[in-house]
Structure formats: structure tokens, C-alpha cells
Amino acid sequence: MTLNRRLFTTIAASALALGLAGATLAADLADIESAGTVKVGMLVDFPPFGLQDNSGNPDGYDADVAKALGEYLGMDTQIVPVTGPNRIPYLLSGQVDVLVASLGITEERAQKVDFSDPYAGISIAVYGDKGVDVSEAAGLDGQAIAVTRASTQDSGVTAVAPEGTQIQRFDDDATAVQALMSGQVKLIGASNIIMAQITQATGDRFDKKFDLSSQVQGIAVAPGSDALLDKVNAFVGQATEDGTLDGIHEKWLGEPLPDFVKTAK
């Protein structure tokens, strides 16, 4: 074989390998049913949605949803830990059948995967001492409110706060939360995830004042997995209607599934 021919063969083989590596593998529902196990990709470093219990097993909101999905499908659930960067590649390469991995539904991601109806959501809101009467942005006038500098909650509060609002910016969530818990401020701009952790530590000392923004999350399947997506959507619909998602959300985030998730389609 000549040098040029060997070079051509090597290049062709490499191109084929790269093509296969980048190929999208649709999930076949019949194959999954035949195997009797649905493989679910899930983050384990994003509490309370994904974490590991004391035995090192996947736990959290997404784990409970994944197990409920398996029960609905009538099969075992195999949870496969993934990371933020590799979760979509794991799905598209067929290493997992679905993602229940805190994946926010965005236009960019919807070009790569097919999303179910929303099963969860992350919201940003103003929270504070129950004794502080603030039900809308105008009520922030004269109030001190903590936010994490350059965060989504910083942008949200800044956009609606009246001129007399004292926005105190901290370098991270921990110091902003400490300012609230120590009484340095009576209000905070925070996500429902952060507030779930605060509520675990303080009980019912704080409540939500008003919402700033929200993003819904969907269960993802590879494009072309239409039969599987139909099943997943049927599960989400039933779990929303019968209170399954309310119960899981109450367990991990201290409140029922938010209305913005239930009404988003």
C-alpha cells in the first residue's frame, strides 16, 4: 500500500470514528421494555435535586422522580450519575435512555434534545422575615435586601427595586444567607433551592414575598425517541394530576410543585 493510500485510509477511518462518536442514537421504547430497565442520567452534585445519600447512592428530587418514572413504565430504574457538561452527550450516545437531570428547557438545548412537559422548576424570588409586609416590588422602598453579587437574583432585584431600596451585595450565597439569618437584613433575593436549605435550618421563620423569575425543567430524550417521549409525557401528566410531584417537591423543597411548572406546556 502506498503512503498516500495509507494516509487516505487513516483519514477515512478517523472521520468515520468521529462521525459515529457524534451520532445521535434514538432510544427504542421496545428495546427498553425488553430489557426491563430504564437508564436515567442524573446529576448527583446539585442538591436538593441531585445528591448522594450516606451510602453513596443517588438521592434527591430527581432520584425520586426517576424512580417514579420507572414504576410508571413498569420496569427497574438504573440511575447513571452524569455531570452538567456530559449529560447531553451521554443521552445522545445512548449511554442513558432519558435525562432527569435538572435540565432547564431552553431554545438552544431544544435543538439538541427533545423535552417532556415540565416536571420541575427553579424560581428566583424575594424572601424575608414573616413580619415584613412586602408583597410587590414597590414595598422594597426603604428596605435592605441581600443578594449575591452579579447573580440572577441580583439582576432580578436590581431591575424592579425602587430608588430607596438598599441592595446589599455579597460575594457568594453563603454570606448573603448569613446576612439574612443574623438579622443584618430582613429580605433576600434567592432561588427556591437556597430557600429550601434555609427553611431546613430555621423552620418557618421566613416566607416568600413575591416572584422575580422562573425557569422550568424537562425530562430529556434523544431526538427521534417519539414513543418513549409519549410515555414520559403521560407520566408527567399523571404525576402532576395525582399529586406525586407535589409530594416529591414538598419533601425536597418544602412546598408543592409551583404553579408556573404546572401551567407551562
The Cα radius of gyration reads 22 Å
**Strand elements, count:** 10
Residue windows where pLDDT falls under 50 for at least 5 positions = 1-21
Query: What is the CATH homology-level superfamily of the largest domain?
Result: Periplasmic binding protein-like II
Q: Mean of residue pLDDT? A: 91
Q: What proportion of the residues form beta strands (DSSP E)?
A: 25-35%
Query: Strand order within the widest sheet?
Result: 8-7-9-6-10
Q: Structurally, how many domains make up the residues?
A: 2
The CATH class of the largest domain is Alpha Beta
| SSE topology string | HHEEEHEHEHEEHEHEHEHHH
CATH topology call of the largest domain = D-Maltodextrin-Binding Protein, domain 2
**Distinct helical segment count:** 11
Instruction: Tell me the CATH architecture of the largest domain.
Output: 3-Layer(aba) Sandwich
State the helicity in percent bands.
40-55%
Helix and strand content put the structural class at alpha/beta
Largest sheet descriptor? 5 strands, mixed
Distance N to C terminus: 59 Å
What shape does the CA trace take?
elongated
